[in-house]
């Protein structure tokens, strides 16, 4: 496996070539070599770039171009698919300031999507939050197909990466699929971070997204060439914020709370945040690969894991423990998303 050389300054978010996980013809040794690199990154900062992922560059470009065209539409056209119209499925458009992190509005607008499920799907019929049909805009034409094709491609990629993560923990390659992700909860977002003053009226930085961790298992993020993503590093026992700048052709991967929980803190869900200082719009497209809604996520009993890490509840961005929680992944997620969109919560959540 090749580790792509990176310039000084962002060497601490490593760039990994994951080709061997994508190709059925690769040898066990080749797959293990990638897995070892992934394992090291997960034990270190919990963030890594991937290349050699095989996701079609033309599809990515098409999605990026169409997304820019959507955000450039007049506000009333974007509001035609506002999230309030998505109901329990929790889909659609929200304007700048419409989403909160730790109670503060983020300086971003965005589109929420998920697996496209019709009314006949059992979870939709049962009124399960975050499941249902997407709200696609009329304009620009083709955005619907691009989003659906991209979600399909990233779902395949996520399954392959989960096989690598399983190998990295000394587990059977199908460990996660067999227990949690054969029917994953897939959530996909397209964000536009507009330029603006670096500080809000109260003197705080004007975060595009405030400090947070992701909730599920694995996040695969496509970002444009603007930059602004920062990762909380604990390298050498020191807490510092390091940049995860754009690397052409790559995705940024990071692990979520459920993998932190499963590994008893050995693989941490690392806090991150975004500040767009570039003076132009920043586009980012996070894809969240989560356990199925009804899964109860349990610690892995594996010798490979060694000692559990200490619970980091007191240091966590929201003061919550990912280890003490009892219930299904759906329960966990609802507790989180209700805080992100308090207005919507009142209308659609149980
Ligand atoms: O836009 C980014 O770079 C990160 C977005 C993010 O962290 C999230 O949506 O969870
Ligand atoms: Fe995130």
Automatic annotation (TrEMBL):
Keywords, comma-separated and alphabetical: Ethylene biosynthesis, Iron, Metal-binding, Oxidoreductase
A Pfam family annotated for this UniProt entry: DIOX_N
Biochemical pathway: Alkene biosynthesis; ethylene biosynthesis via 2-oxoglutarate
Catalytic reaction equation(s): 2-oxoglutarate + O2 + 2 H(+) = ethene + 3 CO2 + H2O; L-arginine + 2-oxoglutarate + O2 = guanidine + L-glutamate 5-semialdehyde + succinate + CO2
InterPro entries: DIOX_N (IPR026992), IPNS-like_FE2OG_OXY (IPR044861), IPNS-like_sf (IPR027443), Iron_ascorbate_oxido_reductase (IPR050231), Oxoglu/Fe-dep_dioxygenase_dom (IPR005123)
Single GO MF annotation: 2-oxoglutarate oxygenase/decarboxylase (ethylene-forming) activity
EC identifiers of the protein: 1.13.12.19, 1.14.20.7
Gene Ontology terms: biological process: ethylene biosynthetic process
Domain Fe2OG dioxygenase span(s) in chain numbering: 183-291
Family indicated by similarity: Belongs to the iron/ascorbate-dependent oxidoreductase family.
Record-given protein name: 2-oxoglutarate-dependent ethylene/succinate-forming enzyme
